Amino acid sequence: MSGEPRYAGIDVGATNTRAVVANATGEVRGRARDRTTRVSDGDRVAEEVVGVLREACGGAGVGPDDLKAVGIGAIGPQDDRGGVVDPPNHPADRIPLVAAVEAATGASVRLRNDAVAGVIAERRFADAPDNAVYLTLSSGVGAGVVVDGHVLTGSGGNAAEVGHITVDSTGAVACGCGGRGHWEAYAAGTNLPAYARHVHGEGVETDLDLGEVTAPDLFAAPDDPLAAEVLDRLARWNTLGAAALVHAYAPDLVSVGGAVACNNPAAVVDPVRERLPDHVVTSVPEVRVTPLGDEVVVRGALALALPE
């Protein structure tokens, strides 16, 4: 390795894995991205995560053993041994991320929930205030929270697993975790097609092919009666969930990311901003789309590795 030390960040989502390699000031020198392998063999998933990191190192002109430190932002839940355990949106039982990355690099490795990494990125790179929430609406639903300048991690690193807040007391729809009525069951991109079929079963008509419908199909057809009803209900569930976050943590900012939100801000983020004042009895925070786009988690993971 020539010159300055290198640091890496990895974002392990249920759908995609990203990695960046940067210098000590956070200037990115190499990037890589691939689909997250969806198999039950967690060791294989971890190996392929390392493969994405190797590709990013190649782009930066270094080897994995040249890295000084690596941060990982990953789906949860997580355990205290550096693994992801029984994630609701991935078939693996346990993904040993820290052990695999340590073995490949010899570097110091830190693991945090992906949404926690998101709020760390908001603080370091996007001027988020001392009281802020990063909310991800993507393959799953989750949040990272900073209160009075302190990032909350909680037992096992699983603070603010808000996707499993019950927003529907009737429990009409099952979540991937096995519970019912959870925010994630209604609002995650992977669950929206099943929710659309549920709403159709209530008698709402549609011209969409419900056997093949995807979340992007619903957002692309706002004039279809079923899509319109699903998007209106989605706005309600997201507002209720966001209101719970506001009442729990009193943020000045809710910054929203994830593919569902970033690809459809007018249908997903704007309604929350408009409706939230009717559901909050404390101060209403600013609600924005994250300015860091689809790199918010990987940038937060990088921040975990960078010198303070």
What characteristics describe this protein?
308 residues, Nucleotidyltransferase, domain 5, 2 domains, five-stranded mixed β-sheet, globular
Task: Report on the architecture of this protein.
- By secondary structure, this protein is of the alpha/beta class.
- The protein has 2 domains: 6-120 and 295-305, ATPase, nucleotide binding domain (Nucleotidyltransferase, domain 5), CATH 3.30.420.40; 128-290, 2-Layer Sandwich (Nucleotidyltransferase, domain 5).
- It has helices at residues 42-60, 97-105, 114-125, 183-187, 192-200, 215-219, 225-249, 259-263, 265-275, 296-305; strands spanning 6-12, 16-22, 28-35, 67-74, 84-85, 94-95, 108-113, 132-137, 141-147, 150-151, 253-257, 286-289.
- Strand 9 (141-147) and strand 10 (150-151) form a beta hairpin.
- The radius of gyration is 19 Å and the shape is globular.
- The model has no long low-confidence stretch (mean pLDDT 95).
Write the layout of secondary structure elements.
Elements: E1 6-12, E2 16-22, E3 28-35, H1 42-60, E4 67-74, E5 84-85, E6 94-95, H2 97-105, E7 108-113, H3 114-125, E8 132-137, E9 141-147, E10 150-151, H4 183-187, H5 192-200, H6 215-219, H7 225-249, E11 253-257, H8 259-263, H9 265-275, E12 286-289, H10 296-305
Parallel strand pairs: 1-4, 4-7, 8-11, 11-12
Antiparallel strand pairs: 1-2, 2-3, 5-6, 8-9, 9-10
For the record, the CATH architecture of the largest domain stands as: 2-Layer Sandwich
Helix content: 25-40%
Average residue pLDDT: 95
Largest sheet, strands/sense/barrel: 5 strands, mixed
Work out the count of structural domains: 2
